[in-house]
Amino acid sequence: MKARLPSILAKAAICALLGVTTSTAKAQIGGIPSKGEVVVVAVTIVAVGTAIGVGAYYAIRHDRAIDGCAVSGPGGLELQNRGGGQTYTLIGELEGIKPGERVRVSGKMEKKRAGVTRQFVVEKLARDYGACTAP
Description:
Blueprint: H1 4-21, H2 35-60, E1 64-73, E2 76-81, E3 87-92, E4 101-109, E5 119-131
Parallel strand pairs: 3-5
Antiparallel strand pairs: 1-2, 1-4, 2-3, 4-5
Helix pairs in contact: 1-2
């Protein structure tokens, strides 16, 4: 549902702009815009700005998901990421994650600190793929 929301918002903004900009052209005497035209332009600017802001918010703010093999480590449960070769110490909602299982977890990455294994705050177990296979 989250992935479709920016798409729906973008389509709604385009439809709103098309509805506003499809009026017929009229010749004006003196070049002074009417009060209605000023309101339409102001509403359009606000709508476009809002759509850009909401789109940027959803494009930038997203939960991460990583997958790999869960193993017991010195600091507790760790996840060895297969794709990036990284090891993350898992903290947060760890119920259902067992050492030796290949899992996908979603959550947030903690800021990297010198000399410390990166931590991943697990918000939920997205998927359990079963036992890890040998590399």
